[in-house]
Structure formats: structure tokens, C-alpha cells
Amino acid sequence: MGLPFYAYMLRCSDGSYYVGHTDDLEKRVGEHSLGQGCIYTSSRLPVELVWSQEFATREEAKAAESQVKGWNRAKKEALIAGRFDIVSALSSRNKQGRALRDALLRKAPQGRGGEHP
């Protein structure tokens, strides 16, 4: 099995959220924290990692990033809180939304709700 990939969400100092994907979560969050590599987060420091999810392929991580980016604030906050019941209730009825929700539910660590420390 290859290296894992991650979709992740940062909370910026202005309360906004930034969603991305990477193959090295610790390094990428460090870059964001130093104001490197992303204009959006560099002007909203400090940032805090509030959610991450591991995926087997870059394509899966990128698809999750794209999906979560399209979510409204309430749905992102439900994901951060591990409230998959609320995420589900706020989900559209389309197949892609259900597939991502199901993947998140399967991979969520027990007791942490997918939230990264």
C-alpha cells in the first residue's frame, strides 16, 4: 500500500475555513502556519487544523476536498464536531454526497469524530 493522502480543514483567525488536500499533513499544516504556499491562509494567520481524513489515493482526497469546499458553514461545523447525523441531514440527495458521507462514516476514528487533535 502506498502513502496515505489527506483532506483537511483549517479554521483561520477570521473564523473562515480553508479546505485542502495533501500527502504530508504535518508538513502542509506547518507551511500554512508559517504563511507559505497559500495566499488565502497567509493573510488569515494563525490557522488551526480542525479536521482531517486519511484516504488511500490522491483522487479520493481531492474528491473529498472538492465536496467539503462546496458545503455551507453549518455542514462544515457539523463535520468538525463529528456530528455525522447532522452532516447527513444537511447532505444533498445526490450519489456523490452519499458516497462521501458513507466514506467518512466508515473511516471516522471512534470517539474523535474525524477531528484531528
How is the secondary structure organized here?
Blueprint: E1 5-12, E2 17-22, H1 25-33, H2 39-42, E3 47-55, H3 58-69, H4 73-80, H5 84-90, H6 95-107
Antiparallel strand pairs: 1-2, 1-3
Structure notes:
The chain is globular, with a radius of gyration of 14 Å. The C terminus is likely disordered. Strands 2-1-3 form a 3-stranded antiparallel β-sheet, sandwiched between helices. The chain has a single domain, classed as GIY-YIG endonuclease. It has 117 residues and is of the alpha+beta class. It contains 6 helices and 3 strands.
Low-confidence stretches: 110-117
Rg result: 14 Å
Strand tally is 3
Structural class: alpha+beta
Distance between the termini: 25 Å
Features:
disordered C terminus, 6 helices, 3-stranded antiparallel sheet, alpha+beta, GIY-YIG endonuclease, globular, 3 strands, 117 residues
Summarize the structure.
The protein has 6 helices and 3 strands, in the order ββααβαααα.
